[in-house]
Amino acid sequence: MSNKDVNEQPLDGELQDPQEVIVEDVSVEEIEEPVIVDSMEQRIVELEAALGESEAKVSAQRDGVLRGKAEVENMRRRVTMDVEKAHKFALNKFANELLPVVDNLDRALAAIDQTDEQFKSIVEGIEMTVSSLNRALEKSGVEQINPVGETFNPELHQAMTMIEVPGAEPNSVIDVMQKGYQLNGRLLRPAMVVVAKAAPVPSPNRKSNLTKGSKPKSDPVPAKSLIGSLILEYPRLLKYLFHNFFKYLIITVYRLRVHRKRKILLLLLY
Predict the structure, then answer these.
(1) CB atoms within 10 A of CB 180
(2) DSSP per residue, 166-212
(3) Gap between the Cα atoms of 194 and 200, Å rounded
């Protein structure tokens, strides 16, 4: 081996050429850099997923809070409405029990001969009582329905019968059999009314068939409809008769003008 070869071989522990070291370091960085980038991207993906889950939880909690607020608001409104209804319609049952008293007093006024001087004081007393009751009912929110001359309203009126009345408008109320009442806009009972109907228009054929001096025959009422009406109205009429039997009996006895029976009647009335 020559001296040249010996000098070219690196000794043990001797540093290599710096350029070769730099080249080796660059190659190591090129190998490790993709691994670092991949780990960072994976971390970013994990953080984004965690952020999405957190946002979803926050959104769900926000929706829950909003729904809870809406439910509380609806509950508050329902409670407020229930309290208002309780105040408005607390007298519903009492008013229904008081209305028959007013009806009986009205019927007593209608049955008494008001032209007779003997009944003058009784009539005045009953009228004052009826007026006081009506004022008390009005203060409590009870309104009277007395639709004479008004157009028939099925929501407030109950038609008991329909008759032909000359000069009356069709579908108008011509008489009130029983007054109706409503409490703060809520119907307690409808007014029982008699409704006017239009007169039938005679057909030309029927008019030509009438001979001179003959009278037109009225159309017969169908038996089925008449029986059905009686069946429907029978319970109400029966209740009405029993309800007013003793009242009319007392008024009839009073009209006999017997001194003893007159005292009994006055005791019953007062």
Answers:
(1) 21
(2) TTPPTTBEEEEEE-EEEETTEEEEPEEEEEEEPPPPPPHHHHHHPPT
(3) 18
pLDDT in tens, 225-266: 444 454 555 556 556 655 565 555 555 555 555 455 455 545
Where exactly are the structural domains of the chain? 17-88, 230-270
pTM of the model: 0.48
Contacts of 143 (CB under 8 A, 6+ apart): 181, 182, 183
- For the record, the structure tokens of 37 come out as 């980038």
Reported as a single tens digit per residue, the pLDDT across 54-92 is 888 888 888 888 888 888 888 888 888 888 777 777 788
3-state secondary structure of 157: strand
Nearest to 99 by CA among 193, 182, 185, 184: 182
